[in-house]
Amino acid sequence: MAAHRKSLKHVTGRGLVYAVLIVSALLMALPFYWMVSSALKMEPFIFASPPQWLPDPLIWDNFIAVFTRIPFPRYLLNSVLVAVIVTVSHVFFDTLAGYAFAKFRFPGRDTIFFLLLLGLMVPFQVNLIPIYKIMSSLGWVDSYMGLIAPQLTSVFGIFLMRQFMRSIPDELLDAARIDGCNELGVFFRVVAPLALPGIATLIIFTFMGVWNDFLWPRLILSSNELYTLPLGLAQMQMRNTSNWGEVMAGTTVTALPMVIVFLLMQRQFISGMTEGAVKA
Amino acid sequence: MSSLSVPAFIRGIRKHGLAYLFIAVPVLAAIIFLLIPMVTSFWWSFNEYNGIQPPRFVGLDNYVKLITGDKIFRHALKNTTFFVFFGMLIGPTLGLLTALLLNQKVRFQALFRTAYFLPVMTSLVVVATIWRMLYNRNGLLNIGLAALGLKPIGWLSDPQWAMMSIVIASVWQGFGFEMVIFLAALQNIPKELYDAAAIDGADGRRKFWYITLPALRPVLFFVYVIGIIESYQVFDQVFVMTSGGPVYSTTTLVYYLYSRFIDLRLGYASAIAYVLFIILIIFSLIQWRFFMEKD
Fold first, then answer.
1. Domain count of chain B?
2. Across all residues in chain A, what is the average pLDDT?
3. pLDDT tens readout for residues B146-190
4. Which of A34, A189, A223, B102 has the smallest count of CB within 10 Å of its CB?
5. Residue A9: what pLDDT?
6. CB distance A230–B125 less than 8 Å?
7. Tens digits of per-residue pLDDT, A179-220?
8. How far apart are CA A96 and CA A104, in angstroms?
9. CATH assignment at residue B99
């Protein structure tokens, strides 16, 4: 009898867990659903009461407008270009520097590393205005160069890579050297493959950061044709707040690439994000 | 490095050339984009500077004005603190609760995790835009309130509500990150600890207080440090949803810094940036002490 009651309690407990999980998952998804469905609605129905749960009639005009009248393809191209260049540059420079700080002994190593870490503590907003002045004296305001140049390497990336490289045993590197590998060979054949999970984490953080970045692009860019997706989306709202269908189509287009990348590489994303936190 | 003689330094370069080559570009970039700007803006914060005429030294004037005479700055400080406090109160709690639920060997765990995590992947501009529509006077939320027989709320137009509305949208965006980290940490706790506690007759609540929570402490530290530092820099949502209004009720520190920058009051903006920096340092120190003492 007691056992029976216990299992009954257990079953209702499980049911409650699932109920809470399902309801909250639906609540989490609702804003996304509302974004897409509003983008497919005719303007007068977007704020209809009672709400129109399924678009009727379902129209594609808003997406067509976003791809023709508003230069979203251009924004998308800019976003991809900037994110790819910055990410490749991070992988190259941060990995090499992280390796040097982790595995080489050279005069000034610890002093230089300490100074870099000092820089890491400073919030970006503190450096914003002087960086802007540097860009303006180089004539790079409102250009790809101005947008990209200040973010080609990062202290955070170097720090991350150094932590990963330190766990690679020195004996492995020495063995490769004895086998006749030169230093570049040691790096590319031994170190880089072993540091791959770290590199994946670096790629994810960098790509996401650049893709979603807003404050710096907002300051440095003023020409519409250089805008990245978040900038284009913000700009669009300042121009026409009346046409919510188009704004939501633009929002969908802005959100979609990252969502697709995430769904395809979910495991890497989540392990990449938790790696640093749980290990540290 | 200063203790080295010049010939030794040159010999060093030759011997360690590869290492210096590897760090050359990032170190140069850090000097140009981190160290020099950090010192420059510190200097500017003691100047009146509009970016065109040369800076004019005014001593502590900018700071004195900020702290004693600037009502908007006081709003910004209050609003940002409100955002950090409620965001950090709700976000990690929600993240921990969902992680605990998901950790109970539920089916479709990956699917639920995806649902909670997806907003983390979307940019704040996207999130702010969606919620601006939900918060519309005739939007879904007010329709929902009407269905419950409640009066509509001016989510973004009522100064009493606007900052809280930004908190809600931001928590929706961010707590999945905390959840994923808590979940990974929960799965790292050795099962034997719980088995041993069960033998000693501990119930669920005791297991949580004496095993789970202590095991999560390093991760809690990480989540709060990162969370507070990031929250103090809130900008994108404010820019898109309210532009700092109504009547400065959502002007945050970075938004205020931004608008002073736009007005070309660069010295003043630099002072705001340094106040922000000092706040972040104080928080980091407090957290450091709080979490290290107990270890």
1. 2
2. 88
3. 999 999 999 999 999 999 999 999 999 999 999 999 998 998 888
4. A223
5. 67
6. yes
7. 888 888 888 888 888 888 888 889 988 999 999 999 999 999
8. 11
9. 1.10.3720.10
Q: Tell me, yes or no, whether B79 and B181 share the same domain.
A: yes
CB pairs under 8 A between A and B: 259
Q: Is the pTM of this model over 0.80?
A: yes
B236·A215 Cβ contact <8 A: yes
Q: How many residues does chain B have?
A: 295
- Residue A60: predicted pLDDT: 94
Give dist(CA A55, CA A244) in Å, integer. Answer: 14
Backbone dihedral angles phi then psi of residue B56, each to the nearest 5 degrees: -115, 120
CA dihedral A159, B271, A128, B235 (to 10 degrees): 90
Yes or no, beta carbons of A127 and B41 under 8 Å apart: yes
Min distance A190 CA to chain B CA atoms (Å): 17
Q: Any bridge partners for residue A130, and if so which?
A: none
Q: pLDDT for A6-36, tens place per residue?
A: 566 677 778 888 898 999 999 999 999 999 9
| Contact: B180, A274; criterion CB under 8 Å | yes
Give the Cβ contact number of residue A255 at 10 Å. 25
Q: How far apart are CA A79 and CA A88, in angstroms?
A: 14
Chain A nearest CA to B130, separation (Å): 6
How far A258 CA sits from the closest chain B CA (Å)? 6
Do B50 and B168 share a structural domain? no
Mean pLDDT in residue range B94-100: 93
DSSP state letters, A121-169: HS-HHHHHHHHHHHHHHTT-TTSHHHHHGGGSS-HHHHHHHHHHHHTS-
Instruction: Report the alpha-carbon distance of residue A36 to residue A58 in Å, rounded.
Output: 11
Are residues B212 and B97 part of one domain?
Answer: yes
